[in-house]
Amino acid sequence: MKYEPVIGLEIHIELATKSKMFCSCSADYFGAKPNTHTCPICLGLPGAMPKANNEAIKFTQKFGSAIGCKLLLSSKFDRKNYFYPDLAKGFQVSQYDLPFSEEGFLQIKAENGDLKKVRISRAHLEEDTGKLTHATINNRRVTLVDFNRSGVPLMEIVSEPDVESAQEAKLYAQKIRQTARYMGISDADMEKGSMRIEPNISLREMGTKTLPSYKVELKNINSFKFAEKAIDYEIKRQTEILNKGEVPAQETRGFNEQKGITVSQRSKEFAHDYRYFPEPDLPPLHFTERQSEKIKNELPELPDEKYQRFIKKFNLGVYDAEILTREQKVAEYFEEAAKAGGKAQISTKVIANFIINQKPNIEKFLPADLVSQIYRKTQKTYIPDDELEEIVKKVLGENKKAVEDYKKGKDAALQVLVGAVMGESKGNIDPQKAKAMLENLLTH
Amino acid sequence: MTDFSNLTIHEASKLIQSKTLKALELTEACIGRAKKLNQQLNSFITICEEEAINRAKKVDKLIANGQKMNPLAGIPIGIKDLFSTKDIRTTAGSKLLENYVPVYDATSVYSLNNANVCIVGKTNLDAWAHGSSGENSDFGPTRNPHDLSRVPGGSSSGSAVSVSSGSSLAAMGTDTGGSIRLPASFCNVVGLKPTYGRVSRYGVIAMASSLDCIGHITKTVYDNALVLNVTAGEDGFDSTCTAQKSDDYTKDIEKSVKGLKIGIPKEYFENFDWKIKNLILEAVKKLEKLGAKIEDISLPHTEYGVATYYIIQPSEVSSNLARYDGIRFGKTREQFGSEAKRRIILGTYTLSSGYYDAYYLKAMKVRRLIRNDFVDVFKKVDVIICPVSPTLPFKLGEKVSDPLQMYLADIFTVTASLTGVPSLAVPCGFIGDLPVGMQIIGPDFSEKLLYQVGYAYEQETNWYKKTPKI
């Protein structure tokens, strides 16, 4: 029997808001000393109440709009009740039946090169939990809780089960990251934990359309590479079970990086009943059609739009356009450089190649500097021949020793003279041309 | 020492601000009384002698310097031990929080401190505010000063008793299903459950968040308005707290009730102690004599009140108590008493998948119907008058083994909680030596009107002057 994977993804992204989701503590906790970004609200102290962060709501709506979701005009927060030592209040404030946005999609390039739509059921907002660290202190094994992360705004994007391979899952997740970065709402860095991927995987008989009776959720995935590995492993594992005529168990499995395998964490019998109910401390939220329109109209250019525009406007190949639009900063850098290059009559193709191949440090190197560097490298000579001859003569007059050496047969001396000419012309000359002129004048 | 135990805030404030009475003198008297009576009444869990004395000295100094002060300056008050008080332990009446010292003040406490009140202490309560008698406290039951063998009503038991017994001139309480109105009624004091959202809940340990109201207990209606003047208002920390401006609640409090339409809901006058019923109807007659018009009305969904309340409230309780999971606060879940456990189990069940629609969601729908009853009625009448409790203060131990009987003590109070409308409990007489109270209920944010009605009635009757013999 042949099987095909049915994969849906839940992706969590921490929003780069100034303050946390429900309090005024700084949300920028990365690297901070444990429990220094805390207050009664994010510690869940008795009596403390949440106050919703409007910036986080805007970010979620912006992202939802960017992935083609419709923004709900009536929304609310709900409590998701469960126990875990990193969960200060014993419930997480999340969104259940009225998320900020629903029914969108992203396009990825399928393995056969075709564009493929992955439908997105919703993008909603919730709060992050604290973080547990297991340690040994005074020979005692202990678990420490750091609440710096508690209450950081977390956006969850849930896809439909449209993904069919580990490769597609990776592409989809990368597209989510790219879009989040384009919207300026998160650095979506998997290593730092500001983006987390949880794939749901099951297999069905090739050609059938119904969803399988089970699904396996994968957790503990810290990079795109591991996401791919974990999914591939899971496909293999489930195929083997199905081939034996059995059905894989519905469960949550964790990915073990060292061994490259998935391990059962929680089975269906222990599945949570989250007992969702409307968060009574936060009144429902209402928005107008005009507000949603405004969010949509004010979206920055999306990665796909930029990609298409780059191909058209700059005459780039799909490969170059894809690489240059991968990151907004690079895309912007290229556009600046292309503008500057236009004045110096350097083709966008040349600039694109330079950026792609040389990978200049775009933080330090101004686009205009890049253009003049390319100019220098590509122009045969910058200085007219008569001026060059004068420079060469001057150099010969000033470097008697090197001239003598050269005449004695020391070829290296010529390099000294070329260097001197380059220096004199401030680099604005093709070294080959300087060399030729030097040889000419030295031998005559 | 002079006996100040019968002073009202209104009187004491005038004396303090005119430098006739020192805040220190009054505070020391109240602290002394609180300490002395606590062995009998057990109305305080913690007495804050040092803090109160320091505050009183500060007030006296400011007044000596000619500083204009809020009428509450130097007034000794009690705070239900459910309100977070910075650096003062806050137990919620439970051993689980026996050693918990908050790092912040509840917004209402902050406002009261800004008005320079003297906090006498943290008052006793049914643990987590679960209860109608005060007997559920892990720190022992509070006793009714009018009859020591009887309960003072709960859950703001210590607050009502501290005011009634003259240990404080006012006390903060919370009312989720009647927890201010019931003890006020049982102890012959005035208790306000404001409109939901009128007073910030921030910092008050949550029982059932969509029902919890922050109110207070005083000897007189005027005093009650003085306190609301300080606690009411918008709070950036409580999103459910209204942005609607609060009133000056003492201004025009003497306004006559002439022409005012008072509704008497028939559902609240069926099948209970006829003596209590008669006292309430007498009170209504008194108001009629003062010029109010009395109308018979109906609130048809009243009978579903307790059932609805006992779905929604435990559901929220189960979620709100989840943070006391044994990981922090130094004590484990073993410290939860049987009432808290009962509500956690009930609420967990009613929120569970498969039961949510049948219980929680259905209850929320009925809640809307009950609210619509009130909205409709307030198109016809200005206020509603009804009893607070179907019974007189009962004996300690009488209902502890029967939770359902205990829950039914709330039968007349839960509807105002479910609908969010304000209700003022005002003393309206005695049966034997036991006090009886009535509720004056009005539309959303009509506290000012409730005070005018309560004040007019109080001027005629002065029940508050009948203090317990202790």
CATH class designation of chain B: Alpha Beta
Strands side by side in the biggest sheet of chain A: 2-6-7-10-1-11-12-13-14
Oligomer: heterodimer
Give the structural class of chain B.
alpha/beta
What is the arithmetic mean of pLDDT of chain A?
90
Shape estimate of chain A:
elongated
> What is the number of E strands of chain A?
16
GO molecular function, one term (chain B): ATP binding
Active site (chain B): 80 (charge relay system), 155 (charge relay system), 179 (acyl-ester intermediate)
GO cellular component, one term (chain B): glutamyl-tRNA(Gln) amidotransferase complex
Keywords (chain B): ATP-binding, Ligase, Nucleotide-binding, Protein biosynthesis
Describe the structure.
- The complex is a heterodimer of chains A (about 450) and B (about 475).
- With about 450 residues, chain A is α+β, with helices and mostly antiparallel strands.
- Chain A has 3 domains: about 290 residues, no CATH class; about 80 residues, no CATH class; about 60 residues, Orthogonal Bundle (Arc Repressor Mutant, subunit A).
- In chain A, about 40% of the residues lie in helices and about 20% in strands.
- Chain A has 13 helices and 16 strands.
- A 9-stranded mixed sheet of chain A has the order 2-6-7-10-1-11-12-13-14. In chain A, strands 5-4-15 form a 3-stranded antiparallel sheet, with no helix packed on it. Chain A has a two-stranded antiparallel sheet with strand order 3-16.
- In chain A, strand 6 and strand 7 form a beta hairpin.
- The termini of chain A are far apart.
- The relative contact order of chain A is 0.11.
- The mean pLDDT of chain A is about 90.
- Chain B is of the alpha/beta class.
- Chain B has a single domain, classed as Alpha-Beta Complex (Amidase signature (AS) enzymes).
- Chain B is built from 14 helices and 11 strands.
- Chain B has an 11-stranded mixed sheet, with helices on both faces.
- In chain B, helix 8 links the parallel strand 7 and strand 8.
- In chain B, helix 2 packs antiparallel against helix 3 and helix 9 packs across helix 11.
- The longest helix of chain B has 21 residues.
- The model of chain B has no long low-confidence stretch (mean pLDDT about 95).
- The chains are: A alpha+beta (about 450), B alpha/beta (about 475).
- At the A-B interface, loops of A face helix 9 of B.
- Chain A: Belongs to the GatB/GatE family. GatB subfamily.
- Chain A: Heterotrimer of A, B and C subunits.
- Chain A: GO terms for molecular function: asparaginyl-tRNA synthase (glutamine-hydrolyzing) activity; ATP binding; glutaminyl-tRNA synthase (glutamine-hydrolyzing) activity.
- Chain A: This is Aspartyl/glutamyl-tRNA(Asn/Gln) amidotransferase subunit B.
- Chain A: It comes from Candidatus Curtissbacteria bacterium RIFCSPHIGHO2_02_FULL_42_15.
